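Sat 14:20. Reprocessing the chain from the morning session after the first attempt stalled halfway. Input below, unchanged.
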Amino acid sequence: MAKDPKYTAGEIAKLAWLTARMAKRGIASQTVYQGDLERKFERVIERAREREAQEAADKAEAEKAARKAKAKAKNLKTK
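Finished this time. Tokens:
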């Protein structure tokens, strides 16, 4: 299983809400269908993974741009 991402406050609240709804259905009966809630739960986790991957890519791109700008500034100083 993939590593769990760091969740935002909204994602934590959504996961807690879905967990509570699943527990409530579980109390009602062991045979109650919970697949819809489980899919929603998985989608929240998947979106969090995608968001974290995008943030990492954005950070890497920003670092690359900063290095490039620093090298260009250094090159201009030496001329």
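The chain is about 80% helix and 0% strand.
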